[in-house]
Design brief:
By secondary structure, the protein is mainly β. 13% of the residues lie in helices and 36% in strands. The protein folds into 3 domains: 47 residues, no CATH class; 290 residues, TolB, C-terminal domain (Neuraminidase); 44 residues, no CATH class. The protein is built from 4 helices and 26 strands.
Amino acid sequence: MVGWLVRSFACCPRTRRITHTSPRAIPSLSLACVGLLCRGLESLLLNQMEGNLDDDTRIKLSIGTKEEGDADGQFFFTLGLAFDHHRGLLFVVDFGNHRVQAFSCDDGGSFVSKLGEEGNQPGQLFYPWGIAIDHDHDRILVADCDNNRVQSWSLSDQSLLSCVGTKGSGDLEFYCPRDIAIDKHHHRIIIADTYNHRLVFLSSIDLSFLFSIGSKRGSQPGEFNNLSSVAIDDDRDRIIVCDTYNNRVQVLSSIDGSFLFEFGSQGNQPGQLNNPSGVCIANHGRIIVADQINNRLQSFTHEGHHISSFDCGSEMPTGVAFDEHRGLIAFSARYRVHVIGANQWLADTEFTWRVDRHRDAPSWMKQAVSTMTMIRSLVDESSAMSMIPNELLFEIFSFL
């Protein structure tokens, strides 16, 4: 029974509920007592495990504290993550505090803003889980898990835009949706409708229902068992799905939703998975998976072949996101979010400058070029500095 309790707590931060059925009923224990017991057991196990991310030099910054909290910059379980590379922000779903917080990627992870509060009215959240940024429509979309709906806010001023869904299994109905992905090529929003064991496709224009894939819990190709995360590989027209309780990742066509292939099986060896809970796409189509109970991130080629693992020590990663413009991988774990310099784990993932990416350059690089431009305006026109174009300055600074 101890193993079952620990797994229940580890896989779902909602300690007020039991998420796995026990082979034996325990009527003598209240849910509160079960929660306390789980937390005590988990702390004991974590203290016995080796590994400390605070000592890992690949971590560029960590946001949050080792203990839960509700102040700005603190969390009661971090889950979904999304980068807004235009504004240099990282959005973090603060599950137990029923809100989303935003932090600056260019200013040491400083707190910027927050949205949401506990409740079931439009604009309120109840145990939110997943998040996505839709730049084409200037909005933030949040999977409002226990309200069984999807809500969106303006990226510009964070005003509420829409609230779609209710509990059920029909069109525009959800049962604990846990993640959202934007398919910009096909103008669709894809929802991981977790307890309905399906993907739901909405129009990105008006959030109207288009179609769904799945519905029956199963382990056959194209079937899901508590899917928890979804990502889009735009370059290859693919949907990547964390099929959590089947301990695998499924790859589908984003054109028609047909099954293409799968990878992963239950275990702790390289390439195996144990409760995969988050997924994102890095450059070159590499697939990054938050392998939760194995306390690691794993990277795979776009064909599903294992590349390498990132040991998370005693922390269980739940969500993961990639910022190709800054070369960052962020992952959530309990009460903190850690940001990795991706090139220090995976080769060829650092920021690379192109002419069309002036606005996506890190703020320090923009400031450096601005300063150089000012200095250049003051020197003699015949000097070498006056002849260096801004394009070359951006390229030079991208190598620092």
